[in-house]
């Protein structure tokens, strides 16, 4: 039996440091410049939510413009001043809204808000570590992010308004201040903000990777890690490898803007008369550099959501996740492939058509691991015993959106079809479903599920239900009709659809979409109220409210520095032993040794442990012979 | 819209809103006065009253939702006191998912028929037909997957909703079925990739082959915020251009040291003959634009410093398309499909597909780029050919 238990020596020495001395915590060291991963996670979350609300309000502003292009709203002028003269949005400011909405949602909410929150919270708690590998760097990571957020938002308060070349900031539009108002000071602030953001993201990423690789507790080998950790780990690797490329792109852009170089600029005449001195550069170069990050970025956004949903769906279906290994390998597959598909954003840039063909092949290959993940989620639900917690609802919503949005990816990944669909509303519908709605639903699922872990209290389930249904239905109503607009050749980033006769038929659809968006946006108050109210007045949480197996639920409800009093628990099994036949309860914590659950052990539990399997078989045989004796 | 109608009818509530807002309005009024807006005579609607009204409406709705929440809570508690089961939310949610599935499927059907009938008509170009076939094939393959997976998702949710008497089925993996659903999508995608790859190559790798009659060459140049067109003259060649020569009179920067440029024509409308291959040479002067002609399934970016081209063959004239769509004022349009600045949404060029004879007649009426004004400026008209060209070039470069 010795092979089944793990001895606890070695962990004990470490404990002395933590158990006995309580270093004095001031308000500043506890809540502001905190180095505790749990507090940093909360900081990321609340900043992320704030940014999400801001970006959502921006989207409502431009949705109103699209629904009522000819109508004046006096309130707009009151709120926005010169950006909305006579109560109508300025067309340049419309583009600024679109740009900042995209930038904030992609980077500040779904990258920092999602990875930042849940990697910080869950990596140490789920792998069994006292804190991150470098708590100080972790703190810096948050404060760089905060600084980046402040700089990004400050661009609303400058004369010519924020950056407005789209979140992809393609030069030459973004490189020449004369090309549009937003390419002046606003663009400079955007670039500075992004440099801080990337620094933050890198510091976070390095921490996540090193913590996962070096600080797992005893018994926690890689194949015993929950899928959340796998997802965060691979996401961090993606970020570390791809974000620096964006820095390179951004720095060259700064050079072009401020120091007269021509990396991205060539043969430019402004206003039909002003011949610019740039020669020899290529705007396409920037697009390559941008999308080398940009495409992995969409997986940086979706993979944590996948991991979170997998975990929550397994817990609430009371069933192991189906095909754990396949889930991990498909994550790895997505990670690797995501580096060689960036060209599908550039099919119609005039890039060499052969290159387009190659990128089409790699892009459609990446659909395979995505399909595998979807089928595995469905199989996880099959014959489960599904509890509809608010977190579970959002995880399900994530799967539904991922299917709906993923399917259209097969159209857009096809270079030939992309000729007619590129940059139309079909694309808008596609990515808002597959990485926008799906990722934000993954994030919300995580918030509902781990709220008890973060704040020691429960969120109100019924308000969560209301929030889910309004948001779920709202998101479909907003994005589903957009596919058809795209198929009618309606381009994105248009200030108004009044100038082209052919687009006027979509005005009523636009009004419908806007009202659906307003409904979904208003529904978020149910979440915001629930979230902030529950922090202070929610029902007190028990230690393991969802009856989950993973390590974080063995830590006490009250947060302590170092996460566990006494030894860090050792791990003996994979995290998905739910509803195991023969077990007393329908869940078995990862910390329960196999020797204590002889009745429910299966050969499956000893796949990489031949001695254990031998013992197991011996035990089974003895049981059988005992039966026969009886 | 629904919200609005609901609230508009409640006059009493609006009265209440105004009442409540009096206080805030005064506050804001003070603010604007302090800012020194004394000059304005008529009080301008600042929209705050409307906003306050809607916020009040919203609070009322919240209040009702709160009451409903309390009702549920009281119901639950009384059930518990009576020793009965409290409300089973798992059943409620499971049922809601089933309802969502049915309503959603109907919604998808409705959207496909209603919105689906508003999408582009079948392609008016040769390669567009191939793309349409591919699009419908892809739709035919993926839509069943979409419908089936969503049905499975939501029916599983209903069927396997929580029941305290039951346990989940412990099924960690099944290698056979996992292999099946890895290989099946791989095969389908391989088919789509092969189909797509060759179609893509045939559309994009369409350089004029040797011996083939050259297609009609048209230059289209994007700048903020319009398209400029250039047709070949009698020589059938487009002259060279140089961006350094661009100025008020020579807006495309034609290089008049190249004789081929003398007879290049300018045009306001892109008129092209039907059933003839057209090669669009796409240029940009300032930022990236994108030539997008949805009805022809044509799109390619206009990149400054990197000319691109797209070859296509229109197969339906404007008149035919008008008859087909039953829209007497229909026009094909070029639009800009890459964000390019404030008026990006209004970069239009009409395309008219006509018969060969109409095309030739139209072409004969177009004016060359080398206008009298330009000739004068470059001293073309009076001086002997050789010396002017040199001088003209120098002049142009100096500009």
From TrEMBL, chain B:
Q: Does the keyword Amino-acid biosynthesis apply?
A: no
Q: Which GO terms describe its cellular component?
A: plasma membrane
Under PROSITE patterns, the record lists:
COX2_CUA, COX2_TM
Q: What is this protein called?
A: Cytochrome c oxidase subunit 2
Q: What detail does the entry give on cofactor binding?
A: Binds a copper A center.
Q: In this protein, which residues make up the domain named Cytochrome oxidase subunit II copper A binding?
A: 213-365
The cofactors required by this protein are: Cu cation
Query: PANTHER family, per this entry?
Result: CYTOCHROME C OXIDASE SUBUNIT 2, CYTOCHROME C OXIDASE, SUBUNIT II
Q: Where is the signal peptide?
A: 1-29
Tell me the compartments it is located in.
Cell membrane; Membrane
Function noted in UniProt: Subunits I and II form the functional core of the enzyme complex. Electrons originating in cytochrome c are transferred via heme a and Cu(A) to the binuclear center formed by heme a3 and Cu(B).
According to the entry, every stretch annotated as the Cytochrome oxidase subunit II transmembrane region profile domain falls at 112-207
As its record notes, the protein acts as a catalyst of:
4 Fe(II)-[cytochrome c] + O2 + 8 H(+)(in) = 4 Fe(III)-[cytochrome c] + 2 H2O + 4 H(+)(out)
| UniProt-listed Enzyme Commission number(s) | 7.1.1.9
UniProt membrane topology term: Multi-pass membrane protein
Q: Which residues cross the membrane?
A: 50-72, 92-112, 141-160, 180-200
Keyword Repeat annotated: no
The record's listing under InterPro entries reads: CcO_II (IPR045187), CcO_II-like_C (IPR002429), Cupredoxin (IPR008972), Cyt_c_oxidase_su2_TM_dom (IPR011759), Cyt_c_oxidase_su2_TM_sf (IPR036257)
Judged by the first EC level, this protein's enzyme class is translocase
Give the record's GO biological process terms.
Answer: ATP synthesis coupled electron transport
């Amino acid at each position: 039996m010795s092979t089944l238990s793990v001895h606890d020596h070695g962990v004990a020495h470490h404990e002395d440091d933590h158990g006995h001395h309580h270093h004095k915590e001031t308000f500043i060291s506890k809540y502001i410049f905190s180095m505790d991963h749990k507090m940093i996670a909360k900081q990321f979350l609340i900043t992320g939510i704030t940014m999400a609300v801001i970006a959502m309000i921006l989207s409502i502003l431009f949705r109103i413009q699209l629904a009522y292009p000819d109508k004046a709203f006096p309130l707009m002028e009151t709120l926005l001043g010169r950006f909305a003269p006579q109560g109508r949005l300025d067309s340049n400011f419309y583009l600024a809204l679109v740009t900042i909405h995209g930038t904030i949602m992609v980077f500040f909410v779904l990258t920092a808000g999602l990875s930042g929150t849940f990697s910080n919270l869950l990596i140490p708690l789920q792998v069994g570590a006292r804190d991150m590998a470098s708590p100080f760097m972790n703190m810096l990571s948050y404060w760089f992010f905060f600084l980046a957020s402040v700089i990004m938002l400050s661009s609303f308060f400058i004369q010519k308004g924020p950056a407005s070349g789209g979140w992809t900031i393609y030069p030459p539009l973004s490189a020449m201040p004369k090309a549009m108002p937003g390419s002046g000071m606003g663009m400079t602030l955007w670039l500075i903000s992004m440099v801080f953001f990337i620094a933050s993201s890198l510091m976070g990423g390095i921490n996540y990777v090193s913590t996962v690789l070096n600080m797992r507790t005893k018994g926690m080998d890689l194949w015993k890690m929950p899928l959340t950790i796998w997802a965060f780990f691979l996401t961090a690797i993606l970020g570390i490898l791809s974000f620096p490329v964006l820095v390179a792109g951004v720095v060259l852009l700064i050079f072009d803007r401020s120091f007269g170089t021509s990396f991205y600029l060539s043969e430019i005449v402004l206003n039909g008369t002003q011949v610019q001195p740039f020669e020899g550069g290529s705007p396409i170069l920037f697009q390559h550099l941008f999308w080398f990050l940009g495409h992995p970025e969409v997986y940086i956004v979706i993979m944590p959501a996948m991991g979170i949903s997998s975990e929550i769906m397994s817990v609430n279906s009371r069933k192991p996740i189906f095909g754990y290994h396949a889930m991990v390998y498909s994550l790895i597959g997505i990670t690797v492939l995501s580096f060689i598909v960036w060209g599908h954003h550039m099919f119609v840039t005039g890039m060499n058509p052969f290159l387009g063909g190659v990128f089409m092949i790699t892009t459609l290959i990446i659909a395979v691991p995505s399909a595998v993940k979807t089928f595995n989620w469905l199989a996880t639900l099959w014959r489960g015993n599904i509890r509809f917690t608010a977190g579970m609802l959002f995880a399900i919503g994530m799967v539904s959106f991922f299917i709906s949005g993923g399917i259209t990816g097969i159209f857009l990944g096809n270079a030939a079809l992309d000729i007619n669909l590129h940059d139309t509303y079909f694309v808008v519908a596609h990515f808002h479903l597959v990485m926008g709605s799906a990722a934000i639903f993954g994030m919300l699922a995580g918030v509902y599920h781990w709220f008890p872990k973060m704040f020691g209290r429960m969120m109100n389930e019924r308000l969560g239900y209301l929030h889910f249904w309004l948001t779920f239905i709202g998101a479909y109503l907003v994005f589903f009709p957009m596919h058809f607009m795209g198929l009618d050749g309606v381009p994105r980033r248009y200030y108004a659809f009044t100038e082209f006769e052919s687009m006027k038929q979509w005005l009523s659809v636009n009004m419908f979409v806007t009202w659906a968006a307003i409904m979904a946006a208003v529904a978020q108050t149910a979440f915001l109220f629930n979230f902030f109210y529950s922090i202070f007045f929610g029902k007190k949480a028990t230690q393991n409210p969802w009856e989950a197996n993973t390590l974080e639920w063995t830590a006490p409800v009250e947060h302590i520095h170092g996460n566990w009093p006494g030894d860090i628990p050792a791990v003996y099994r994979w995290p998905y032993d739910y509803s195991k036949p023969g077990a007393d309860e329908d869940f078995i914590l990862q910390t329960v040794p196999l020797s204590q659950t002889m009745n429910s052990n299966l050969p499956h539990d000893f796949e990489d442990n031949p001695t254990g399997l031998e013992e197991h078989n011996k035990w089974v045989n003895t049981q059988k012979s005992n039966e026969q004796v009886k | 819209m629904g919200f609005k109608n609901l609230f508009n009818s409640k006059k009493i509530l609006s009265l209440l809103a105004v009442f409540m807002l009096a206080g805030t309005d005064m506050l804001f009024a003070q603010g604007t006065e302090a800012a020194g807006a004394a000059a304005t005579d008529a009080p301008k609607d600042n929209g705050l009253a409307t906003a306050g009204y809607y916020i009040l409406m919203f609070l009322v709705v919240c209040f009702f939702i709160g009451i409903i929440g309390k009702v549920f809570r009281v119901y639950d508690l009384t059930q518990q006191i009576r020793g009965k089961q409290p409300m089973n939310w798992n059943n409620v949610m499971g049922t809601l998912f089933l309802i969502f599935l049915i309503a959603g499927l109907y919604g998808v059907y409705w959207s496909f028929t209603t919105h689906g009938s508003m999408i582009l008509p079948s392609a008016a170009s040769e390669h567009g037909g191939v793309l349409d076939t591919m699009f419908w094939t892809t739709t035919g393959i993926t839509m069943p997957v979409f419908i089936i997976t969503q049905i499975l998702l939501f029916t599983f949710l209903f069927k396997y909703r929580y029941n305290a008497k039951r346990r989940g089925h412990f099924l960690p993996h099944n290698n056979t079925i996992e292999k099946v659903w890895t290989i099946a999508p791989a095969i389908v995608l391989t088919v789509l990739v092969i189909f797509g790859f060759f179609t893509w190559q045939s559309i994009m790798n369409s350089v004029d082959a040797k011996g083939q009659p050259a297609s009609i060459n048209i230059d289209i140049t994007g700048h903020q915020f319009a398209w400029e067109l250039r047709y070949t003259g009698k020589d059938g060649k487009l002259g060279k251009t140089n961006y350094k020569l661009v100025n008020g009179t020579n807006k495309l920067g034609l290089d008049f040291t190249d004789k081929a440029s003398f007879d290049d024509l300018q045009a306001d409308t892109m008129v092209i003959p039907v059933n003839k291959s057209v090669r669009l040479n796409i240029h940009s002067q300032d930022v990236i634009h994108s030539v997008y002609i949805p009805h022809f399934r044509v799109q390619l970016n206009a990149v400054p410093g990197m000319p691109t081209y797209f070859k296509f063959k229109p197969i339906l004239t404007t008149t035919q398309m008008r008859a087909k769509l039953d829209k007497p004022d229909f026009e094909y349009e070029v639009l800009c499909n890459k964000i390019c600045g404030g008026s990006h949404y209004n970069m239009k060029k009409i395309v008219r597909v006509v018969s060969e004879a109409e095309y030739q007649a139209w072409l004969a009426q177009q004016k060359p780029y080398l206008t009298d004004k330009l000739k004068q400026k470059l001293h073309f008209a009076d001086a002997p050919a050789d010396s002017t060209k040199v001088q003209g070039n120098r002049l142009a470069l100096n500009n």
